Amino acid sequence: MALLEIEGLTAGYGEAVVIEEMNLTIEDGEGLAVLGRNGVGKTTLMLAIMGHARRFAGSLRWQGREIGAMPPHERARMGLGWVPQERDIFPSLTVEENLLVASRPGPFGLEDAYSLFPRLRERRRNMGDKLSGGEQQMLAVGRTLMTNPHLLLLDEPFEGLAPVIVQEMEATIRRLRAEKGFATVIVEQHAEDALELSDRAIVLDRGRIVLQGRSSDLLADFGQVRRWIAV
Ligand SMILES: Nc1ncnc2c1ncn2[C@@H]1O[C@H](COP(=O)(O)OP(=O)(O)OP(=O)(O)O)[C@@H](O)[C@H]1O
Ligand SMILES: [Mg+2]
Predict the structure, then answer these.
(1) Which of 33, 96, 131, 229 has the CB geometry, 3.0–4.6 Å to 135, for a possible disulfide?
(2) Tell me: the pLDDT tens digits for 56-79?
(3) What is the pTM of this model?
(4) Cα(56)–Cα(46) distance, rounded to whole angstroms?
Protein backbone atom coordinates (compact mmCIF):
# COMPACT_ATOMS: atom_id res chain seq x y z
CA MET A 1 0.00 0.00 0.00
CA ALA A 2 1.28 3.48 -0.88
CA LEU A 3 2.03 5.90 1.93
CA LEU A 4 0.23 8.75 0.20
CA GLU A 5 -1.92 8.47 -2.86
CA ILE A 6 -3.17 11.64 -4.52
CA GLU A 7 -5.80 11.24 -7.20
CA GLY A 8 -7.37 13.94 -9.35
CA LEU A 9 -6.50 16.65 -6.87
CA THR A 10 -7.63 20.15 -7.78
CA ALA A 11 -6.83 22.73 -5.11
CA GLY A 12 -6.24 26.42 -4.52
CA TYR A 13 -7.49 29.39 -2.53
CA GLY A 14 -10.95 30.99 -2.50
CA GLU A 15 -12.14 30.70 -6.10
CA ALA A 16 -8.63 30.39 -7.52
CA VAL A 17 -7.54 26.99 -8.83
CA VAL A 18 -3.77 26.48 -8.50
CA ILE A 19 -3.22 22.71 -8.57
CA GLU A 20 -5.08 20.92 -11.34
CA GLU A 21 -6.05 17.26 -11.53
CA MET A 22 -2.87 16.06 -9.88
CA ASN A 23 -2.08 12.36 -9.60
CA LEU A 24 0.85 11.45 -7.39
CA THR A 25 1.87 8.48 -5.29
CA ILE A 26 4.51 8.46 -2.57
CA GLU A 27 5.75 5.10 -1.33
CA ASP A 28 6.94 4.44 2.19
CA GLY A 29 10.55 5.56 2.60
CA GLU A 30 10.63 7.24 -0.79
CA GLY A 31 12.27 10.60 -1.48
CA LEU A 32 10.45 12.85 -3.91
CA ALA A 33 11.66 16.19 -5.26
CA VAL A 34 9.13 18.79 -6.40
CA LEU A 35 10.66 21.20 -8.89
CA GLY A 36 9.40 24.16 -10.86
CA ARG A 37 9.66 27.89 -11.34
CA ASN A 38 8.31 30.49 -8.90
CA GLY A 39 4.55 30.49 -8.58
CA VAL A 40 3.82 27.16 -10.32
CA GLY A 41 2.10 25.72 -7.23
CA LYS A 42 4.79 23.84 -5.30
CA THR A 43 3.87 25.33 -1.93
CA THR A 44 0.18 25.03 -2.71
CA LEU A 45 0.65 21.30 -3.29
CA MET A 46 2.26 21.03 0.18
CA LEU A 47 -0.56 23.08 1.70
CA ALA A 48 -3.16 20.88 0.01
CA ILE A 49 -1.46 17.75 1.37
CA MET A 50 -1.47 19.25 4.87
CA GLY A 51 -5.05 20.54 4.61
CA HIS A 52 -4.25 24.26 4.52
CA ALA A 53 -5.42 24.91 0.96
CA ARG A 54 -8.91 24.61 -0.49
CA ARG A 55 -9.63 21.26 -2.12
CA PHE A 56 -12.05 21.52 -5.05
CA ALA A 57 -11.87 17.90 -6.17
CA GLY A 58 -9.92 14.70 -5.83
CA SER A 59 -8.81 12.38 -3.09
CA LEU A 60 -5.87 12.06 -0.74
CA ARG A 61 -5.33 8.65 0.79
CA TRP A 62 -2.86 8.18 3.62
CA GLN A 63 -1.95 4.53 4.20
CA GLY A 64 -5.18 3.65 2.43
CA ARG A 65 -7.36 5.99 4.45
CA GLU A 66 -9.09 9.03 2.94
CA ILE A 67 -7.84 12.24 4.60
CA GLY A 68 -9.04 14.86 2.08
CA ALA A 69 -11.64 16.26 4.47
CA MET A 70 -9.50 16.00 7.58
CA PRO A 71 -8.29 19.18 9.35
CA PRO A 72 -4.54 19.91 9.39
CA HIS A 73 -3.91 18.97 13.04
CA GLU A 74 -5.39 15.51 12.50
CA ARG A 75 -3.22 14.97 9.44
CA ALA A 76 -0.20 15.98 11.50
CA ARG A 77 -1.22 13.53 14.18
CA MET A 78 -1.39 10.75 11.58
CA GLY A 79 2.25 11.31 10.66
CA LEU A 80 2.38 14.07 8.08
CA GLY A 81 5.17 16.46 9.05
CA TRP A 82 5.49 19.80 7.32
CA VAL A 83 8.35 22.31 7.45
CA PRO A 84 6.82 25.51 6.04
CA GLN A 85 8.67 27.78 3.62
CA GLU A 86 8.42 30.65 6.15
CA ARG A 87 9.72 28.39 8.97
CA ASP A 88 7.18 29.85 11.44
CA ILE A 89 9.40 29.75 14.51
CA PHE A 90 7.68 31.05 17.69
CA PRO A 91 9.70 34.26 18.30
CA SER A 92 8.97 34.58 22.02
CA LEU A 93 9.79 30.98 22.91
CA THR A 94 13.31 29.64 23.39
CA VAL A 95 14.81 27.11 21.01
CA GLU A 96 14.10 24.34 23.51
CA GLU A 97 10.52 25.48 24.06
CA ASN A 98 9.97 25.62 20.29
CA LEU A 99 11.08 21.99 20.12
CA LEU A 100 9.08 20.85 23.13
CA VAL A 101 5.74 22.41 22.13
CA ALA A 102 5.81 20.30 18.96
CA SER A 103 6.72 17.07 20.72
CA ARG A 104 4.59 13.97 20.20
CA PRO A 105 5.28 10.45 21.45
CA GLY A 106 7.70 8.41 19.37
CA PRO A 107 11.35 7.53 18.99
CA PHE A 108 12.52 11.05 18.10
CA GLY A 109 12.95 13.35 21.11
CA LEU A 110 14.87 16.38 22.32
CA GLU A 111 18.20 14.56 22.53
CA ASP A 112 17.81 13.37 18.94
CA ALA A 113 17.12 16.92 17.79
CA TYR A 114 20.25 18.11 19.59
CA SER A 115 22.45 15.34 18.26
CA LEU A 116 21.18 15.99 14.74
CA PHE A 117 21.76 19.75 15.12
CA PRO A 118 24.42 20.38 17.80
CA ARG A 119 24.05 24.11 17.18
CA LEU A 120 20.52 23.97 18.56
CA ARG A 121 21.85 22.56 21.82
CA GLU A 122 24.28 25.48 22.08
CA ARG A 123 21.44 27.91 21.38
CA ARG A 124 18.81 26.14 23.45
CA ARG A 125 18.10 29.17 25.69
CA ASN A 126 18.09 31.67 22.79
CA MET A 127 14.72 33.15 21.88
CA GLY A 128 13.30 32.12 18.51
CA ASP A 129 13.78 35.58 17.06
CA LYS A 130 17.46 35.66 18.04
CA LEU A 131 18.64 33.04 15.57
CA SER A 132 20.45 33.15 12.25
CA GLY A 133 18.65 31.97 9.13
CA GLY A 134 20.46 28.66 9.23
CA GLU A 135 19.63 28.12 12.90
CA GLN A 136 15.99 28.96 12.21
CA GLN A 137 15.90 26.37 9.47
CA MET A 138 17.50 23.75 11.73
CA LEU A 139 14.93 24.57 14.39
CA ALA A 140 12.09 24.33 11.89
CA VAL A 141 13.25 20.88 10.76
CA GLY A 142 14.00 19.75 14.32
CA ARG A 143 10.60 20.91 15.52
CA THR A 144 8.78 18.98 12.81
CA LEU A 145 10.84 15.87 13.59
CA MET A 146 9.71 16.20 17.21
CA THR A 147 6.20 15.38 15.97
CA ASN A 148 7.59 11.96 14.95
CA PRO A 149 6.27 12.14 11.40
CA HIS A 150 6.24 9.35 8.85
CA LEU A 151 6.48 11.72 5.91
CA LEU A 152 8.55 14.89 6.00
CA LEU A 153 7.51 17.71 3.67
CA LEU A 154 10.28 20.29 3.27
CA ASP A 155 9.43 23.51 1.45
CA GLU A 156 12.65 25.11 0.14
CA PRO A 157 14.80 24.06 3.11
CA PHE A 158 17.92 25.68 1.65
CA GLU A 159 16.39 29.05 0.77
CA GLY A 160 18.51 31.96 1.95
CA LEU A 161 21.15 29.78 3.61
CA ALA A 162 24.91 30.15 3.24
CA PRO A 163 26.49 27.38 1.10
CA VAL A 164 28.19 25.75 4.08
CA ILE A 165 24.86 25.55 5.95
CA VAL A 166 23.19 24.15 2.83
CA GLN A 167 25.77 21.35 2.79
CA GLU A 168 25.11 20.69 6.46
CA MET A 169 21.34 20.53 5.90
CA GLU A 170 21.80 18.23 2.91
CA ALA A 171 23.93 15.87 4.97
CA THR A 172 21.30 15.87 7.70
CA ILE A 173 18.50 15.07 5.27
CA ARG A 174 20.58 12.24 3.77
CA ARG A 175 21.20 10.88 7.25
CA LEU A 176 17.54 11.03 8.21
CA ARG A 177 16.55 9.18 5.07
CA ALA A 178 19.24 6.51 5.44
CA GLU A 179 19.00 5.92 9.18
CA LYS A 180 15.33 6.54 9.95
CA GLY A 181 13.79 5.58 6.62
CA PHE A 182 11.75 8.77 6.38
CA ALA A 183 9.72 9.40 3.29
CA THR A 184 10.55 12.95 2.22
CA VAL A 185 9.14 15.49 -0.19
CA ILE A 186 11.57 18.30 -0.94
CA VAL A 187 10.43 21.41 -2.77
CA GLU A 188 13.46 23.16 -4.19
CA GLN A 189 14.56 25.87 -6.57
CA HIS A 190 18.04 24.32 -6.62
CA ALA A 191 16.99 21.43 -8.82
CA GLU A 192 20.30 19.59 -8.91
CA ASP A 193 20.62 19.55 -5.10
CA ALA A 194 17.07 18.27 -4.79
CA LEU A 195 17.62 15.56 -7.42
CA GLU A 196 20.71 14.36 -5.60
CA LEU A 197 18.71 14.03 -2.39
CA SER A 198 15.75 12.17 -3.87
CA ASP A 199 14.77 8.95 -5.66
CA ARG A 200 12.19 10.48 -7.93
CA ALA A 201 11.11 13.93 -9.06
CA ILE A 202 8.17 15.78 -10.51
CA VAL A 203 8.40 19.11 -12.31
CA LEU A 204 5.39 21.40 -12.06
CA ASP A 205 4.26 24.13 -14.40
CA ARG A 206 1.04 26.06 -13.84
CA GLY A 207 -0.25 23.57 -11.33
CA ARG A 208 0.34 20.45 -13.40
CA ILE A 209 3.05 17.79 -13.59
CA VAL A 210 4.86 18.41 -16.87
CA LEU A 211 7.80 16.06 -16.34
CA GLN A 212 8.58 13.22 -13.96
CA GLY A 213 11.06 10.44 -13.58
CA ARG A 214 13.81 8.87 -11.55
CA SER A 215 16.12 11.52 -10.14
CA SER A 216 19.21 9.80 -11.54
CA ASP A 217 17.71 9.81 -15.05
CA LEU A 218 16.74 13.48 -14.77
CA LEU A 219 20.24 14.37 -13.55
CA ALA A 220 21.78 12.47 -16.47
CA ASP A 221 19.59 14.39 -18.90
CA PHE A 222 19.31 17.67 -17.06
CA GLY A 223 18.53 19.66 -20.20
CA GLN A 224 14.90 18.55 -20.17
CA VAL A 225 14.55 19.69 -16.54
CA ARG A 226 16.22 23.00 -17.25
CA ARG A 227 13.76 23.66 -20.02
CA TRP A 228 10.95 23.80 -17.43
CA ILE A 229 12.75 25.54 -14.60
CA ALA A 230 14.91 28.10 -16.42
CA VAL A 231 13.72 31.65 -15.79
N1 LIG B 1 -3.04 32.53 -0.06
C2 LIG B 1 -3.15 32.64 -1.38
N3 LIG B 1 -4.28 33.14 -1.94
C4 LIG B 1 -4.41 33.26 -3.28
N5 LIG B 1 -3.47 32.88 -4.16
C6 LIG B 1 -2.35 32.39 -3.68
C7 LIG B 1 -2.10 32.25 -2.27
N8 LIG B 1 -0.88 31.70 -2.09
C9 LIG B 1 -0.37 31.54 -3.33
N10 LIG B 1 -1.25 31.93 -4.28
C11 LIG B 1 -1.05 31.88 -5.75
O12 LIG B 1 -0.94 30.52 -6.14
C13 LIG B 1 0.03 30.36 -7.17
C14 LIG B 1 1.05 29.31 -6.75
O15 LIG B 1 1.74 29.78 -5.59
P16 LIG B 1 2.71 28.83 -4.76
O17 LIG B 1 3.09 29.59 -3.55
O18 LIG B 1 2.10 27.51 -4.59
O19 LIG B 1 3.94 28.71 -5.77
P20 LIG B 1 5.40 28.12 -5.54
O21 LIG B 1 5.64 27.22 -6.69
O22 LIG B 1 5.53 27.60 -4.19
O23 LIG B 1 6.31 29.43 -5.73
P24 LIG B 1 7.71 29.84 -5.02
O25 LIG B 1 8.76 29.08 -5.75
O26 LIG B 1 7.80 31.31 -5.28
O27 LIG B 1 7.62 29.50 -3.57
C28 LIG B 1 0.63 31.74 -7.41
O29 LIG B 1 0.01 32.29 -8.54
C30 LIG B 1 0.28 32.49 -6.17
O31 LIG B 1 0.12 33.86 -6.44
MG1 LIG C 1 6.71 28.12 -2.56
Answers:
(1) 131
(2) 999 999 999 999 999 999 999 999
(3) 0.95
(4) 15
